[in-house]
Amino acid sequence: MRTIRRFLRQYQSFVISGTVILFSIVAFFVGLLPGIHAAIRLISETHSLQNTVKILTEKQRILSDLDISMLTTYSAAAITAVPADKSLGSLFSTVDTLTAQENVTVTGISLGTVGSVASDSAKKLTVDEQKIGVNIVPFSIIIEGPIDRVRNVVDRAVKIRRFFRVRSFDLSFDTKSGVTKSTLSMDAYYVPDLKQLSKVSDALTTLTPDEMEILDKVSAFPLLIQENSGGIESQTAPTLPGTVDPFAP
């Protein structure tokens, strides 16, 4: 005991200094260091919020400058050209209207594969779909009529506002009646709605001149509609198609 007291009296200043240093180290790790981490986190969050505010301000400026009428026209044109689902009703109605306008007879129409009517979740994208970035509904039609009318159908099929692609076709002629029979293998396109929407904080870009030029061309394509009453109408206005029964008399 005397030895301890003698040691403390002899090294009292060192003991006090060591105690203070030890307490300071403990206080640094227990109190000051977490506070530094919290301050750094707050600075980072503040910087992130400043960037978000800057993006939202720019978004507000872009949105305030947009022409709502123009966007409505472009949106309607895009949806009717490449719908968000297979839209088989508009597909058959467009084919029916096109062939009726050209006075050719449709003797057969069929979907290319059973998978064409499967749900989007059950359908895997083909190599061709992955290449062009859209979903495809393959179908084929058999038409009969004068050769010039058949040629017009093939030509107009890729110039209407329900985008089709003619993959192949074959012709056969009846020399006695002058009737041409043709089988057209075609594709229709659709793009399902996005399952995940973009974040509010994501940057917004305006349409480029090239994109606007493309949308102008799409809007100019005729929209073929078959009315329920049996009348046929060709429109260029960007009117969204309603539910149409392509097999109605």
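The record above closes out task 2.4. Task 2.5 opens with a second protein, given below.
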Amino acid sequence: MDTKRHGLALLEDPQSFVDPNTPRIRNAEPQIPRTTGNLPREPRSRSERAREFAAVEFRNELPQDVLARYRETNVLVSSSLAVGCLVSITAVAAGVMTLYQVSWPLAVAFYPLAGAVIARQQRGLELLVHDGSHRAWYRKNPKVNDFLTNVLAAYPSFTDVAQYWVFHKIHHADYGSEQDPCKRRFESMRSAFEPGGLLPTMVSYATGWYREAARKPAALVRAAAWHLCVFLIPLGMALGWSTALIAWALFWLIPQFAFLPWLRFIAELEEHDYSDGQTESSGTYTNVGWLHTWIVHPLKDGYHLIHHAFPSVPQWKHKALHKLLMEVSPKYRSSRGRTKLLGGSTALRNVD
């Protein structure tokens, strides 16, 4: 049976994703369904599921009308964030190419910083694909939501919002199970800290992520067509085809496949610790240090517990919701957070 996308995250019994007759837990957060194929899962006891669903106990401390306002989407905001990422990447590339005309050694010396800045903006595009998979661009019209997400964020990132949702939905519906793709990645990421394990782990991590995010050839074909129409053809006509190919490689492919995986690796490593807690709340972290905000989590996606508790809230509203919960929810203030990159965690009440 096809699995439907509801975005209920922690509050709904996972079996209800398969059996429509299974009773649902009250106050579950609704989201527009998406049909994207079967959802594999392992058998789990009622006590294990109950322990997971207890993770979002603080969400009932907010009135439903308040939550409804936070769940409202704004397609102009989401679109402008994506356009801003694309424009900034173009500006950095143009700046380095201009600098090359003045002094090529200076341009070469500046390139690593430029590549890191571009990778940060590419990370922003990935986060917007994640938002789009939860219908958080434009919930009133799923087709418009997916079209804009794909054209402005997913295709540039060599993925597809529907394909991204295929593996991401399991992370929410089956958090912590053997089916959870993020748990599998997290376990494999630990080998990076073993002697001689960093480079092999990064290669495996990067290729594995793209295998999941763009598992169908059609997604890669559409992404290639986007890059051809948006970058290669205009650049080729303006600067020549050889220059266009070199610029595309230097200012998109290399940042995306050589720089970006390091940022994503750190971000995912800090979002969860599957060995640290029995529930989704005790194993999910809020990362709000200045390095988190300016480098690793560029679009306010460091408030990861908020995302798991309220998956349909657009990420650009997470900071405001975080501030509200810090004021009204003792349970949320007791959840874990950190201000130092890859540092130790403490209760959120000690962070803000």
